[in-house]
């Protein structure tokens, strides 16, 4: 029993550090022969195009939340400090509960993927991601530090349910020798998406402050509105990418 626990712990640690799921070889889709005849292209070309498209959808599915999450992290602090009027200490702490909840959820996300396949935690994470951002948009006139904390917990829960599993799922779409490249690509794109998210969030607030009407607080509020709309749209894109990703994978699996 003790040996079994150590083995499970080792497996869990390896998965947590590398974010690599169980690797499966991608089989040829049943429709490949039809595509070859239809487009008059070699089988290898059709395989590369379909695999590249599926991998692209998966990358979009994984990097869009990073863009949104890091942009929201900066924006939430600025919003709480400037518009709600909280102290700098409280403004800095509004993201702490969500980060703690996300850290607790991450190990269970991997176990959930093992038990229910990747589709369930990714879809659940995408729904929570969209729900949290829509709550920010709808509740903006009523926002308090507590409501920001609640919304961020929902958003962070969705992110941690889906991100590591997205990388693991993407690893199953390529050959074993390319798994390291997939992980490196995700890490690079995550950092790039984070910097873009912060830039977009602050740029929209700055644009509203310069071009809007009324007091600075009113213009900042409108800029916040733009940010919440952008965040909600990106969350919707994430959920649609998840749906499209598994729709394509289901088609490939049915064709095998």
Automatic annotation (TrEMBL):
Tell me the domain of life.
Bacteria
This protein's GO cellular component annotations are:
plasma membrane
Q: Which UniProt keywords apply?
A: Membrane, Transmembrane, Transmembrane helix, Transport
Q: Where in the cell is it found?
A: Cell membrane
Gene3D superfamilies assigned to the protein according to its UniProt record, in alphabetical order: MFS general substrate transporter like domains
Membrane topology value:
Multi-pass membrane protein
Q: Does the keyword 4Fe-4S apply?
A: no
Q: Which InterPro entries match?
A: MFS, MFS_trans_sf
Transmembrane domains' residue ranges: 7-23, 67-84, 90-110, 122-155, 188-207, 228-246
Q: Which PANTHER family match?
A: MAJOR FACILITATOR SUPERFAMILY MULTIDRUG TRANSPORTER MFSC (PTHR42718)
Mind telling me what this protein is named? MFS transporter
